[in-house]
Amino acid sequence: MSLLDMVREAGVIGAGGAGFPTHAKLTAKPEYILLNGAECEPLLRVDQQLMELFPDEIIKGFEAAGRYAGAEKAIIGVKGKHKKVIEILKDRIEALQVGGFVEVGELPDIYPAGDEQVLVYELTGRTVPEAGIPIQVGCVVINSETALNVYNASLGKAVTEKYITLAGDIPNRVTVKVPVGTPIIDVLKLSGIENFEGYSVIDGGPMMGPVMSSLDGYITKKHKGFVILKKQHHLIRKKSVTPEQARRVNRSSCEQCRMCTDMCPRYLIGHDMQPHKMMRALSYKLDDLEGQKTAMLCCQCNLCELFSCPAGLYPKNANLHFKAKLAEQNIRYTPVKTEFTARKNREYRLIPSKRLIARLGLKDFDKPAPMAEIEMQPELVCIATRQHVGAPAVSLVTAGDHVQPGQMIGRIPEGSLGATIHSSISGTVVESGNDYIAIRRD
């Protein structure tokens, strides 16, 4: 069985973000394969610890993926501040004798260094075209945990566990490994908080993660962490504003200072993403569809709303408003240029992570969340059939079936992009629907 087949059978996807199936990336034939170890979202601690704890496995998985894909060079992107991790990786690259192919590329401690297109620019100097993807400039990107899962897949092990950081205003900041499908509330309680009535939970990092409306969900293969804050924290209040409330504030208060544009990461690498123009179109109810199309270039990093705007307005919301309007009319953005060059002022407008954390009011919570050996044994797991880009997995089991850990319970639909799913515990299937497969532990 080829590595591609093993990765596909194991259900390896991007272990964060949208969850793109990794086997599809292995067919891309890139010049560079890049490992995203930036983990640029404040407070999250998964990738940096995995690279320290499992350097050999990550390097081997990354090398194998790069070799199979036909890449000429494999670069591990790590922030320069993680000196211990960098030292370990360089030492193990040399010991494993892969130095002619794999190398470490040091990244600045900025947000969003882990944005896929910013990462490509920082490590290769190439700019991904507007509305494009990295392979258009000869690059494929996977992250640290994905590389670890590629290595495990090469040993015949499916993706059944997920690493999660718990951070924020909590007694116990920790990073743990939990079975896929574990109830989120069970994981959250590892923070030392039992009653969440006075707290709100951000699903993911504090910049891009949404405030959860309910804590009743289940862990998927692309969860990365949870930031728990008191409900009165200003970040929670800011992220809890409704789209209509944000539009009303935007219409009444924007002074067109264009700071949202001048500090936009995509604008700075040469794209035509200009949030201040979307704010203008919203304020004056402009109907210029051509001018609004650039809203589709927004990567939703939230820097404009949570850092750049001096008035505390909602430029990202304006982008999303017009993106939705254009999508309703099936209108797509078509780039005018074919070559892109970073703006000459980019180096002076990068946002240091420490300054961002202070602006978010998270300085007191920017502390280690060490990896802990906590064995979680949920009585019931619910494994989503759609926890990845593409078509949902087609169930291979029915209620009453007995399954073992690692057993495939959902396959990729014929001729579709998707990912397999596997049981994370030994137990009996109690429900098998279109949305999830529920398994009760023996």
Structure description:
With 442 residues, the protein is an alpha/beta fold. The protein has four domains: 3-154, NADH-ubiquinone oxidoreductase 51kDa subunit (Rossmann fold, 3-Layer(aba) Sandwich); 160-233 and 361-375, Ubiquitin-like (UB roll), CATH 3.10.20; 243-352, Fumarate Reductase Iron-sulfur Protein, Chain B, domain 2; 379-442, OB fold (Dihydrolipoamide Acetyltransferase, E2P) (Beta Barrel). It is built from 17 helices and 17 strands. The strands form five sheets. It has a four-stranded parallel β-sheet, with helices on both faces. Strands 7-6-9-8 form a four-stranded mixed β-sheet, with no helix packed on it. Strands 11-17-16-13 form a four-stranded antiparallel β-sheet, with no helix packed on it. Strand 6 (161-168) and strand 7 (174-179) form a beta hairpin. Helix 3 (46-53) runs parallel beside helix 5 and helix 4 (55-69) crosses helix 7. The longest helix has 15 residues, at 55-69. The protein is globular.
Report mean pLDDT, rounded to a whole number: 97
- Total strand segments: 17
CATH superfamily assignment of the largest domain? Answer: NADH-ubiquinone oxidoreductase 51kDa subunit
Low-confidence stretches: none
> Number of helical runs?
17
Shape: globular
